[in-house]
């Protein structure tokens, strides 16, 4: 897998535990302890967390006889499908290229089940949507096809870094159900509406997926509309309708069933008007997972939650520290996933639980 490799960073696979441990990971040397006004000790933090607080659990695939039959048919279809060449993009008459290992590793058991559920268990619909996403990932630059993908569109840390210099998107901590938390801080917007904003969000989605521990395949999206400090002179405007629609289409079409919980806080009055405008473009199931103006502390352990939301972290975004460490950690997790993929036979339909486990034996 070539996607998301930093040109200036070297990483190695984790090798010192048999599974994602049920404890907060040790922090980098930037961590320290401070005391809040209330007298409680706060943990200074500049980087993501490596593991959730709560123990990880294997997934439970509780399928009916009919659901199992449909899953088996999807699996069989893609076992044959990956033997064929696929278009390198969605343009008419596009050249074709063999399916990459990276794409086979994406075609997991959980992936098939996500698309089946999102398609209300309509077999042909699920298959069609998966095939469309395979082509979209090539077209949008999520997957690089050698000698075909324009280097200018390959979604890398270097491509989107300027979008995150203010820390408007953050991966920090895990919620009570071990979902990695992706924060969108609308008040820290530092660029004008463009395709780069969409590429940046896709990059962060792919990154937060890499932070998922074994047994979890959804994320928590925490959206904070609070304005940035005045001295930063940043925009608090809502994204344009065209950008919002494009993002929603990508989320619903190519990341189905990935949203486990969506939390919104500090919503200004105009925000509710904005939600009414974009509401028709949000599918009912996704809308059912959103929660408005409830304390984040109800859903995220205080050990991994910032003091601004009544947590125990004193989180400070220092771009050069956070951006490098976040990408190093994600790359390490990606390398472990790839190693397990080859260890388990490099085939379609492997479980993401097995692909994310950490093994002591790193020599296989």
Automatic annotation (TrEMBL):
The keyword Endoplasmic reticulum applies. This is SEC14 homolog 3. Residues 159-317 form the CRAL-TRIO domain. InterPro entries: CRAL-TRIO_dom, CRAL-TRIO_dom_sf, CRAL/TRIO_N_dom, CRAL/TRIO_N_dom_sf, PI_Transfer_CRAL-TRIO. Residues 10-37 have a biased composition (Low complexity). PROSITE patterns: CRAL_TRIO. It catalyses: a 1,2-diacyl-sn-glycero-3-phospho-(1D-myo-inositol)(in) = a 1,2-diacyl-sn-glycero-3-phospho-(1D-myo-inositol)(out). GO terms for biological process: Golgi to plasma membrane protein transport; negative regulation of phosphatidylglycerol biosynthetic process; phosphatidylserine metabolic process; phospholipid biosynthetic process; positive regulation of phosphatidylcholine biosynthetic process; response to xenobiotic stimulus; sterol biosynthetic process. Residues 1-50 are annotated as: Disordered. SUPFAM superfamilies: CRAL/TRIO domain, CRAL/TRIO N-terminal domain. GO terms for molecular function: phosphatidylinositol transfer activity; sterol binding. The lineage of its organism: Eukaryota, Fungi, Dikarya, Ascomycota, Saccharomycotina. GO terms for cellular component: cell periphery; cytosol; endosome membrane. Pfam families: CRAL_TRIO, CRAL_TRIO_N. It is found in: Microsome. Keywords: Endoplasmic reticulum, Microsome.
